[in-house]
Structures are given as structure tokens and as C-alpha cells.
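Q: Hand in one record:
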Amino acid sequence: MSEAGPLILIVEDEVTVRRSLRAILVDRGFRVVEAETAAEGIQRSREHNPDLVLLDLGLPDRDGLGVVTALRSWSLAPVIVLSARGQEDDKITALDAGADDYLIKPFSANELLARIRVALRHVAQRSPSRDAVFELGDVQVDLGRRIVTRAGQEVHLTPHEYKLLEVLLRHADRVVTHRQLLQEVWGPGHGSETRYLRVYMVALRQKLEPVPARPRWLVTEPGVGYRLRLDRDLASS
């Protein structure tokens, strides 16, 4: 294990990929511990309590989703899935299981590092205080007062529009799946009515985005869900 910075656990069975990831991370000052199977990954996570986990789904002994489930039973460490599986269903399943982000192989070192920085910065902000104030350019959202303003003028949001925005803010810079949003905004009986989300997201963008057709803050993750992007690292990676 290397000797400085936040600790990252790499769970990956391909030796060349692990070596490449280790080199990238150590060069940026991270500590690294490695595992090549799901069982070893769970064991290492318990032994070392990593600050973040990079997880491949195609492990030899067990699907990587089992590692996500096991981690979530006791750890809040962010999990970034690194997988060659690019199907939307794979992304949705991983995110619904508790992963924080999903990168499809191959990916650039810069994008990986940007996602890691974002995940680490937001560990303590997953549940912002109820009186938190967020700024999106000239838009200000005051959760305590339940007031949204743009350029100093109050913006009227319907109850569902406001709840949708609030949920995205509370998961800022993380992908939130369609299912998660529907259940948090409309209730546990809803999970497949994605048309609701499209309609309300269009309305939110019209009210909050500088150029609604090219959203800066309320970003679509195609086929998966939405991300409210506060951190510009994700835009410049």
C-alpha cells in the first residue's frame, strides 16, 4: 500500500488495468490498496475502510454488484463502477444498488480523477442541512425558506418541480436514476413513469437554465437518470 492521501480501494481482476489505475492514483498522491476478486474486495474494505472504491463489475468469483450491496450494508464510502458493460440497464442496476457513479471503459485518466475528486468532496454533503443555500449561476435555492430566485427575482415552482429540484440538490453531482427520482418525488408506488420526469425537467430547465436546450446544471444521463451538476470538474474533464 502506498503512503499518502485518501485511501482508494481498487477491485479489478485484470492486472494491467490495476497497475494502470495504481500509477494514475499514486501519481496524484492517493494511497492505494488492491483486490482482484469480490471476496477479496469485501475483505480489504473491512480491513482498510477506504475513502473510495473503484469497482469492476466483471469479477471472477462474483458479480461486482454483490460488492456494492455488501459495502452498503456498513459503509458510506463512495463507489465508482468501472466497467466495460455499457448497457443502460447495467448502469441503472449499479446505481440503484448503491454505486455513486459509473464510468465505461475505456475512459481517460482526467475524467476518472475528476469523478474521484467530486465523490470525495461530496461525501460529507450527501445530506445537506435543511437550511442550506445553493447557487447555480444567477439562481439561488434556499432550502430552509423554500425559495428559489433568479437574478434576485423569485421563481415560482410547482410543488413537484420544487421537490424534484430539492432531491437533485441533495444528491448534487451524483447520478440519480429515474426510479430513485420517481419514488422520492411521487412516492414508492411510482417507478416507471419516466414521462413525468421529462415533463418536469423541461419545465425546470425553462425556469432555471440560461439556455434550456443546452443545460448547464440539470444534466441528462441518457437512459439512466439526471445529475444536478454543481461541480465544474465534471464539465471540464
Summary: The domain at 133-236 is CATH 1.10.10.10 (Arc Repressor Mutant, subunit A). Residues 202 and 212 are 8 Å apart (CA to CA). The chain is about 40% helix and 20% strand. The chain has two domains: 7-125, 133-236.
